[in-house]
Design goal:
Blueprint: H1 2-11, H2 13-24, H3 29-50
Length: about 60
């Protein structure tokens, strides 16, 4: 999950904005990364639960 989120932060605009916002509010980089990982897990879990193959509103 760590490496997946590192790539996601670089490629996904919404996750990058979320990560940067967490860092500017005082979170350490690793803490902000873990928060993004949790957000990704929640999104993926809801996709599996709903049976959707792609989520347009990622954050």
């Amino acid at each position: 999950m760590f490496m997946a989120m590192m790539s996601t932060i670089q490629c996904n605009k919404k996750f990058k904005i979320y990560y940067e916002r967490l860092k500017t509010t005082g979170k350490r980089p690793k803490v902000a990364l873990i928060a993004c990982m949790r957000k990704m897990i929640v999104i993926l879990n809801s996709m599996v639960r709903n049976g959707t193959s792609r989520e347009e509103k990622m954050v």
